[in-house]
Amino acid sequence: MLKKTAAEGVHAEGIVIGAIIDMSSRIGKEQRAAMEIAVEDFNGTGNQTLVLHIKDSQRDPVRAALAAMDLINNQQVQAILGPQTWEEVLSVSEISSQTQVPILSLADATPRWASERWPYLLQASPNKQEQMKAIAAVVQSGNWHQVTVIYEDTDSSFLYNSLRDVGVGVIKGVVLSTFSSTTALSEHLGKLKREQNRVFVVHLSLPLAVRLFEKANEMKMMGKDYVWIATSPVTSLVHSNASIISSSKQGIIGVKSCFPEGGHPFRKLRQRFEGGFSIENPKDDSNEPGIYAAEAYDAVWTLAVAVNGSNRVGQELLGKILQVDFNGLSGKVQFIKFINERAPADKFHIINITEKGYKELGFWSKGLGFSKTIHENSICSSCMTASEQALTPEAPRHNSRGWRIATSANPLRVGVPGKSGYREFVNVTYDHLGNSVSFSGFAIKVFNETIKRLPFDLPYEFIAFNNSSYDELVKQIYLKKYDAVVGDVVLLAKRYQYAEFTNPYTETGLMLIVPAVSGRREWSFITPFTKSMWVLIAVITVYNGFIIWLIERNHCPTLKGSMLHQIGIVLWLAFNTLFSLHGSYLQRYLVDVLRFKTQNIKNYSTLDAYAQAFKNKDITAVFLEVPLAKLFLAKYCHRFVSVGPTYKLGGFGFAFPRGSPLLPSIDEALLNVSESGTLLELEKRFITPAKCPEVEDENQSLSPDSFGTLFILTTGTSTISLAIYIFSRGISMVGYKITWRLVLAAMRYWVCQKQITRRFSNAEISVNFAPHAPGTQSLV
What is the 3-state secondary structure (H, E, C) of 344-395? Predict the structure, then answer.
């Protein structure tokens, strides 16, 4: 039961403060020694007397709450320092707010919402969440796109968010606790070892982290292809434990709080600290103080400065604490109002922890990036390799891949469709025993060129998959039979449940292919014409219009009038007969496709099968992916054309396991293949032929021969109509004979010209296709 508020328990003799720490931990030991030194220093000023009461929570939230009640009710403290863990802070905060006793938390971080709920809770140590941005910068600098986070049962959302902000994905989070057994650690590490990812961010307390690293070292998970990154709970105590990892040449990258360790005030603290600490803690390996000691020292002085002069308590004391501003041992001591939090640190050491201790690699500064020093003129970079000279031969350099790497003995297993119907894309040859011996084709060559452009070696082998289902082929990645799939594999949403895909290496979409002509050439009316063809059309059109005018002029008043009016009528009649026709086949076809029925769909496995189906009139159109459509049109040239819109689909891509860290590097290499022009060269080599195998010229215009049948029908119909009209009008025999002879002469001339044209046309074909025999002329 709470008895007194802070205002009721003011000490006339001086300032009374309390502290709740875990005296069994290294952090608690450092905090206690530093606090006692701070009290001595303040009392040595002669202003007021500072009394410190310390309680041991043993890292137990219930003990922490009981300790707070005892300090407030019995010791009548004006403020409380600590505790270290967020769970303990939660148990104490409610008590402090009810009694109006400020709590200066020494935990690594305090959620922003906590100050609204408990206004007397302040974050006395710089918020360690800012270091998560430094962690994310290290990961980004190493070009590691996927990480696994191993953390204790604490809030790690800020770490996750910081990683995602720089485009790094968290494959999984592994939660451990102080009570995790050695067997549990082995099981967790065993699962991680079987995964491809090899980048681990460790956010654990030092004792648990040491156990983890020892077990990982036993399981040979501390080699050059593994990357371990440690946060402040580990790095802030590296000075106290010289053997965090028992044996590892690769080491651990760490982000460590940066404070003026070399300054005179801290050196003075170190001298006094080492003597007393070694006496009270003779079993500890090191007597040096670290960041936790510096922060505890500054927290005592924060309260002393706020209370000094008048014995302030409650709301008045809280306000004075928020106004504190001085340079402490741990850096600038200044609080952010409204969120009751000490200004976060903006600089961190980047260190390398090995079996021999640790070495500073450089610094990371918020808003500036990495640098070798933190002077005003320091050269900063967003990439950690700018500080590469600081690395020792044992340090983990940034060419560490961070995933299970393929070797010559254990290459990447790449599944390839063994029965692809499109050999231009994938062509697998077999020996007489049925074993695959070689792989070729456009998709294979593109993959080969992509691997060549990776910044690291990636041995691989192709394995033929003889099941015809491409869905099953992709599923083999999920079943861990293959590490990747290469071929004419379309990117489909349903396949993402088994794998992830690279960016498409072909154009995307679905095209509609139809025959270029419907029937014989004599009926192809929509192709561009030659000049003579256009002239002939005009003559025949006017001729037809003249006959219509001649026959109808006495029966229709509109066709009478002046000579100019009647000429206009003739031309109108002529061209009205030409453009009143409707060519609507494409529109009707598109409507039919949009309402396509299952029974009208036929499947074929090769391009030749499609062509044969067109020839047999089994199908009238075919849908193909853009790369296959281009191959089909290139192979059959002018016999088929693409019509209508291109329906967007995924295109062809390479498949990898979901979350594979290889994907970003493969995508980047694939872009290099495209930008260098190699992709275009391969496309010309495998898809677009050097010469069109068809005789026809794509740009050939239609001559009068193509419309012989049409012209005979139209002119014949008009001439018969004219003959009937002449007979019906009783024109004289002489006039009839003259007219008929003119018609016959015109028809004879037409037939003669047609025969001459055909002879020259045949002669030209013979010249183009005659074989070149030795000692003979090529002209036929």
Answer: CCCEEEEEEEECCEEEEEEEEECCCEEECCCCCCCCCECCHHHHHHHCCCCC
Query: From the first residue on, what is the mean pLDDT of each consecutive set of 10 residues in the chain (780 residues)?
Result: 48 80 93 95 86 94 95 94 88 92 87 83 83 90 85 78 82 81 91 84 89 90 86 88 61 88 88 89 88 94 84 86 91 82 86 83 89 82 58 42 69 90 87 80 95 89 87 91 92 87 86 68 48 70 70 62 61 44 35 52 77 84 80 82 73 88 89 92 79 49 61 68 65 56 63 50 30 28
Give start and end residues of each alpha helix (H) in 113-252.
114-117, 131-141, 157-165, 182-194, 206-218, 232-235
Q: Report the alpha-carbon distance of residue 223 to residue 594 in Å, rounded.
A: 58
Length of the chain: 780
Q: Is the dihedral of CA 307, 312, 314, 317 positive or negative?
A: negative
3-state secondary structure of 212: helix
CB 293 within 8 A of CB 270: no
Distance CA(641)–CA(636), nearest Å, equals: 10
Q: How far is CA 496 from the centre of its chain?
A: 14
Burial class (CB in 10 A: 0-12, 13-18, 19+), 342: buried
Spatial distance between the Cα atoms of 132 and 109, rounded to a whole number of angstroms: 11
Local structure of 104: helix, strand or coil = strand
pTM score over 0.90? no
